[in-house]
Amino acid sequence: MQIIGEKINGTRKKVKEAVLARDAKFIQDLAKVQVDAGATYLDCNAGTTPDREPEDMQWLVTTIQQAVEIPLCIDSPNAPSLAAGLEVVKGQAMVNSTTAETERAKEVIPLAAKHNALLVGLTINDAGMPSSTEARIEIAEGIFNDAKAAGIPEKNIYIDPLVRAVSTEPEQGIALLNATRIIR
């Protein structure tokens, strides 16, 4: 099982402030705390504006790698930012994430293949997040097949079947569990 520490995310106020101020100590301390808690990967998300995020991502990746030696999970909705992070990451990174949305898959899957990265595929397509087991499986198969066709080895592809709110859609727990079983 992989445990991804998710605290270095620029959507969190203090992390964003640290990225913008280039506060390496804050970021490195946060990285060390997560490693000490058992993280096997660290999520790296600059979370700044798209025009400056690639530069911020490179700074963030470099800063984290100066403090810890575990692999990074490069995370952004912005493909240029993913590319920037993958350019400076040491070792094999994980890309978080692609979906089956046409534009996203077209940008992210080749990036992961080019950099020999692990790839997380979320079961979302152009119609959104599915509610049925069958739709999740169909989307997962599409991501899996596209990733393999791009040259990503099967062992480097992770599928996240996603769970919808069980509190308002109680059947979603079973749909998720069934999808997980079949996808596996």
Category from helices, strands and their pairing: alpha/beta
Shape: globular
The stretches of 5 or more residues where confidence is low (pLDDT under 50) are: none
Q: Give a short account of the largest sheet.
A: 6 strands, parallel
Work out the strand percent. 5-15%
- Distance from N terminus to C terminus (CA atoms, Å) equals 13 Å
Order of strands in the sheet with most strands: 1-2-3-4-5-6
Helix content, binned percent:
40-55%
The DSSP helix count reads: 7
The strand count comes to 6
The topology string of helices and strands comes to EHHEHEHEHEHEH
User: What kind of assembly state do the chains in view correspond to?
Assistant: single chain
Radius of gyration: 17 Å
Rounded mean pLDDT is 96
Give a quick precis of the structure.
The chain is an alpha/beta fold. Helix content is 47%, strand content 13%.
Primary descriptors:
6-stranded parallel sheet; alpha/beta; 184 residues; 6 strands; 47% helix; globular; 7 helices
Layout of helices and strands:
Layout: E1 4-5, H1 13-21, H2 24-36, E2 41-44, H3 53-65, E3 72-75, H4 79-88, E4 94-98, H5 102-114, E5 118-122, H6 133-149, E6 157-160, H7 172-183
Parallel strand pairs: 1-2, 2-3, 3-4, 4-5, 5-6
Helix pairs in contact: 3-4, 4-5, 6-7
